[in-house]
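Whether sequence alone determines local backbone shape is best considered at the level of individual chains. When preparing material for the folding task, we compiled for one chain both its residues and its backbone structure tokens. No coordinates are needed to read the tokens, only the vocabulary itself. For completeness, the protein is quoted in full, as a sequence line and a line of structure tokens:
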Amino acid sequence: MHRRLSEICTAKRKIMLNPIIDWSDSDVWEFITLHKIPMNPLYNQGFKRVGCIGCPLSSRGRKELENAPKYKKAYFKAVVKHFEYRKERGLGLDGIMETPEKYFEWWLKG
């Protein structure tokens, strides 16, 4: 997809600005270094992108949660709660949602 300096987001009824859309990775790092901008320490651990821990859209979700056991426990607790919610309401629990453990495993695979 070709991104532009400014774009119209019809869903949010806003004009979105992308001020560094044409910068390379090295441009960004040069700017950070030049201006002594503090950075997230996860970049020093090899992360190329920093977002939510355990994001199912990331190929590193499982590894991130293994390195952050408190987050993993919190995510699993949320899965159990969601599982129970669906069960109480008679919503589909077959296949990937047979048990909270199977659901969580499916979620981790992205």
Remarks:
- The chain has a mean pLDDT of 84.
- The chain has two domains: 1-38, 41-110.
- The chain is about 40% helix and 5% strand.
- Residues 51 and 58 are 9 Å apart (CA to CA).
